[in-house]
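ingest -> validate -> predict -> emit
validate: passed (alphabet ok, no gaps, 391 aa)
predict: started
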Amino acid sequence: MLSRIKDIATKISPRLLEIRRHIHSHPELSGQEYQTAAFVAGVLSSTGLHVEEGIGKTGVIGELKGNGNSKRTLAIRTDMDALPIKERTGLDFASRNEGIMHACGHDVHTTVGLGTAMILAEMTQHLSGNVRFLFQPAEEIAQGANWMVQDGAMNDVSAILGVHVFPSIAGGSIGLRYGALTAAADELEIIILGESGHGARPHEAIDAIWIASQVITTLQQAISRTQNPLRPVVLSIGQINGGIAPNVIADQVTLMGTVRSLHPETRQQLPKWIEEIVGNVCQAYGAKYQVDYRQGVPSVQNDYGITQILQSAGEEAWGSDRIQVLPEPSLGAEDFSVYLQHAPGSMFRLGVGFKDREINHPLHHPQFEVDESAIITGVVTLAYTAYKYWD
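emit:
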């Protein structure tokens, strides 16, 4: 069966290259993937799948019915949105939409999803159950997965697979991770309320800017002394707003940041821990405060059994030397984790780095490029994993 999958992949590889370059040339921002969705729906329809559009606002579902008696449905999720980045690759098929770029590889993800659908559509007699292809919008703003789930995308799904490109792994290789793959990503807003006064008489005021600096310093110091170092937490303040003039002591400062964590138990404790620290600092200097801790997407926790099937499929397809078990998770975030709250699954890293280049630019870089040979690696791996899921 593997040789049959590889034969089909070889046959459709020129078409997949065209698809990827078309999508790359026409990137669309999160929630605005109208042309991409229409293009995806057209390809799926021509492949013979039952297609539903407008799922999760601009998402697309392609349903493939297997020939067996299993009632299980395997979902394969790929994302379609691009980033507000001006492309600087110089490619012939570079973005035609000014200031928008597929700098995170979602053009490759979408192509891999479509290629997998093309292969499995020719193999329905060998599929014991159904395969549901989820083409998701708005991953970059961590909203699309929730939208898709709300519209029923995970109804009756028994397991789910996902893929994400990885430039630090050579093209043609795959990275797997058992357990935590990415971090939970939460948002933090802290408002410090002091009292205004003249810059020359600070003793008559309550300096919100100075107190905000103490809050930031104390939070960073407290992480290293009060949090388990084996359960990492990253708290980064990325935005500070406050003050009206150089000689006026600010009476209000707003801090905005992100909080990343890997362990659910740690994540549950963070809102209370942060508020206690902010409260103690503000009380010491006579200020008031407000803390708004907003939970975002949880950590991607890959299922052991599904990841085993992925590893077995990858090793059979490419050899064990091209399959890496990643030693560490990423503190980046992925809303694939939302689907994992409804069914077990696994996301793997698809290597897209060029072997002969000293520098492979990272994700979200204006010069980010991919080794397009990785598309076939992703397609064959997903298609064979889907087959082995019922095997």
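The radius of gyration is 24 Å.
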